[in-house]
Amino acid sequence: MCRHIAYLGPPSPLGELLVRPAHGLYRQSWEPRRQRYGTVNADGFGVGWYADGDPVPARYRRAGPIWADLSFADLARVVRTGALLAAVRDATLSGADAEAAAAPYAAGPWLFSHNGAVKGWPGSLGRLASLLPANELLSLEARNDSALVWALVLHRLRDGDEPGQALADTVLDVAAAAPGSRLNLLLTDGETVCATAWGDTLWYLAEPGRSRTVVASEPYDDDPGWREVPDRTVLAATRTDVLLTPLKEPPA
């Protein structure tokens, strides 16, 4: 379920990254090439981007399919950015949260997305949810598994964890509480991108000479530079470097 993408590089229109590529996120909403679970991502979409001089990203999110939103077509044509995170959504369960359930989620400089599903939701994460302060639980943007996973990641970030460590530890905790979950997480602050491959596809395209890195659920074109991230891996990237670190299975 779901497809997402993060970009760091020279300023570019949103449409050049999300719409124009032959197999970009826009097309992945109805015809993904490598999606293992679900077939159509039409239950919402969102894009978050950073403007020069402002560390807090802007977001545009809607509850319907990306191809039906004419306002997004205008935004994609004229808005330029050097960093973004975008996603199209295939909902695991129906709900009443509408666009609040669509990634990217945000707090301060951070944008976050979850591609996957938590097994046994919501009961499986009761213990982990109980570890969060009440004000953080009450601040959840939506009542779905992705929003709670984001709250767990954000709690670690606020406690001072490095982004990659916050993702890795959250994945291991959730995987231990809900075995069989798919937990591909994507996080950016506009300068770095961190991601996990845990149960679904993840790829990256690194072009150090252009100071450009793309991390995505699947390649948006047939450039031979795309590399698949092995399952059970955390990725940490800047505009010029990509580091892959294996993740261990949580104890049984």
From TrEMBL:
Domain Glutamine amidotransferase type-2 residue range list: 2-252
Gene3D superfamilies xref list: Glutamine Phosphoribosylpyrophosphate, subunit 1, domain 1 (3.60.20.10)
InterPro entries: EgtC, EgtC-like, EgtC_Actinobacteria, Gamma-glu_amide_hydrolase, GATase_2_dom, Ntn_hydrolases_N
Species assigned in the record: Streptomyces ficellus
Pathway(s): Amino-acid biosynthesis; ergothioneine biosynthesis
Protein name, as recorded: Gamma-glutamyl-hercynylcysteine sulfoxide hydrolase
EC number per UniProt: 3.5.1.118
Catalytic activity: gamma-L-glutamyl-hercynylcysteine S-oxide + H2O = S-(hercyn-2-yl)-L-cysteine S-oxide + L-glutamate
Keywords for the protein's UniProt record, in alphabetical order: Glutamine amidotransferase, Hydrolase
One annotated GO molecular function: hydrolase activity, acting on carbon-nitrogen (but not peptide) bonds, in linear amides
Pfam families, per the entry: GATase_4
Annotated GO biological process: ergothioneine biosynthetic process
Function summary: Catalyzes the hydrolysis of the gamma-glutamyl amide bond of hercynyl-gamma-L-glutamyl-L-cysteine sulfoxide to produce hercynylcysteine sulfoxide, a step in the biosynthesis pathway of ergothioneine.
